[in-house]
Amino acid sequence: KPKAIVIGAGIAGIASAIRLSIKGYDVDVFEANSKPGGKLGEIKMNGFRFDAGPSLFTMPQYVDELFKLAGKNPEDYFKYIKLKEVCRYFYEDGLRLNATSDLNKFAKEIEEKTNSTAAEVQRYFKKSETIYEVTHRVFLERSLHKLKSYLHWDTLKSIFRFGQIDAFRTQARANQSFFKDERITQLFNRYATYNGSNPYQAPATLNVIPHFEYHFGAFIPKDGMYGIVKALVKLAEELGIRFHYNQKVEDILYTSESKPKISGVKVNDKTCKADVVISNLDIWFTYKNLLKAIPEPKKLLNQERSSSALIFYWGMDGNYSDLGLHNIFYTEDYQKEFNAIWKDKTICDDPTVYINISAKHIRGDAPADGENWFVMINVPANNGQNWDQLIKEAKVNIIKKVSRILNRNIEKDIICEQILDPRTIESKTGSYQGSLYGNSSNNQFSAFLRHSNFSSKVKNLYFCGGSVHPGGGIPLALLSAKIIDDDINSVVQ
Ligand code: FAD
After folding, report:
1. pLDDT band at 147; cut points 50, 70, 90
2. How remote is the CA of residue 429 from the centroid of ligand 1, in Å?
């Protein structure tokens, strides 16, 4: 059997390993950490369980597809439910909105409680759907770096419809034209942060994101987000894939011919041979650490990184009936918050706070009289800021804000805490500057300035994960594995 090595057991690395195994390869996965999952990790503390990274699960069909490809029934491995309530929104002026998955109901609630109308919401989602139709095949499901992608009839059709993707104004500007009520503009501006971008700079094309959440749905895995990793690793091991933990790859090896070809990797000073290598590392570290002799694609590597996050994992003594699974507490001045992150590279004193409580659905994630709070704010990527000081200030501001809006002193309920910040995101998951999603999407060319899924210098070397095409987030990371799969011939007899 030909041999494949995957470097990194992030979600895209695991998916790539499964796809290659099904193609007939003998697959080894080398992972620097003691556990699989990368950013998609979990934390256990004092009887509480937390998903460490992603909390919003969309496009579960991309996970199911892997079980189906292996000839298995996805439900035997992995169960999830569709959320009826997508998110609860809280504003400082007292406004509270419950975003239901039933869009008509959500639009009606917006009309009843704000100065915006249901018709505005419907118009916005129609646009969101159009952007999806035009972009998904070209920008998400195929390589942007292969001629054959452009020869499909549906790609050509999409190219003719490019004017409709709203790439030439910012998301914030577009949303201002959709909604009369500023608070609703703010609600939809937040979608830029789903890939670590700034709505005041990023193109309005990012208005495609709500289509994923409302048309395809938002979900929660029955075992929490980490359940995705556990289910896929189980499948992978059944397929015969070998996972090697605490094994940091030191080098990618290739032949010295004029057209080099992959020959393997170096781990613990030992050479492991392979016919195909897929790197799931942040592309920055792949070039800096594992491909030192290959000239770097400077332009791609020097793009602005996406934002990072500061997360407090709080075990809470008490139940909060005002809160649901996903909760957002908006800042009073969104532009100020994004200026702080993107221009001043700091944290403002009134950040938008996201609280995820998986125990609302998965009771076992917290003791009966408690809740597991994942409390996150968006922060700049790490440029050497004084994080200890910023964290101290942010904690005070978050506690004040949430206590004020809920009219309850939350601080006294915090019984245990862990913190993740841009420095630890980098050290624990190998993400350059702790950015969550690779490069930002702050300009209309960003899609073209992500690294391709293959190397143009070394034959049979591939790249998957959130820092390369088509981008960050679980669904896109899974699509990167699919694009690689489409490029590799099956060796099954
Ligand atoms: P990564 O998760 O980046 O994993 C890479 C792996 O490579 C790591 O396990 C690392 O240890 C390993 N590695 C690094 N160097 C080496 C080496 N030399 N040798 C061997 N192994 C190595 N996405 C969503 O869809 N929804 C969300 O709600 C969401 N929220 C997020 C919140 C946070 C706090 C974070 C951090 C991310 C969030 N994301 C979210 C983004 C999502 O987690 C990522 O896009 C996705 O998990 C990236 O997966 P990946 O395949 O790129 O691998």
Report:
1. confident
2. 6
